[in-house]
Amino acid sequence: MQTDDVLSWVCQYCGEENQLWVDLTIFGDQDFIEDCETCCRPNRIIISHDKENEEYIFVDARLTDE
Hints:
Order of helices and strands: EEEEE
Shape: elongated
């Protein structure tokens, strides 16, 4: 059983791709703030859990102002 994974997301401020470590043992949706590795601005990261396939699916990176 895989317990963690690395997902990519794109900063909504500067457009740079970032890497994010995700703990796959946390069930349910995840919603948190992650700073861009390039411009250091905060992005709201939303990760959804596919309960049927028991997999996490990266959903969205958003501006923190939304």
